[in-house]
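Our consortium's second objective concerns turning raw sequence data into structural hypotheses that experimental partners can test. To show how far this objective has progressed, the report includes one record in full. It was chosen at random from the queue rather than selected for favorable results. The single chain below, 141 residues long, was entered without modification.
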Amino acid sequence: MITKVEPGAFDDLTQLKLLNLAYNFIYRLPIDLLKPLVNLHYLSVEANNLAYFQLTDHVFKKLIYFDIYNNPLQCKCLESIRLYTKAHGIELEYDKFSEVKNGIQPECIINDICDPEAGEEFVKDYWQIFNNRRHIHDDLD
């Protein structure tokens, strides 16, 4: 399992078109790490611990598919991602409403900002709260 992507990890991968970092424990993926990936078409960071992610034109010019499903994103960050992908015609995969509605999977963390400093402690606190609420819900059934 990957927990951290080291600086320079993608520096020589300028022709890379598909990057799958799914099912790891990545808390942070700074945009600067992805800058060399100028030909990236497909990016999956599904099932990590990302509370923050930023899509920008200077990094994702050729992106056509982005999968951020099953991450504890801050709601403002998810909103920004949705707007960006819609405006740029990028297919977005994120948490399914049916799973959110049934309490299986949270859609996002409610807050008023999209904080790039939200990291491991923020995510741990979130999962603790979510799991506590889920157990309460299960006890009521």
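The partners drew two points from this record. The beta strands are 18-20, 42-44, 65-67, 91-93. The longest strand covers residues 18-20. Both points have been shared with the crystallography group to help prioritize constructs.
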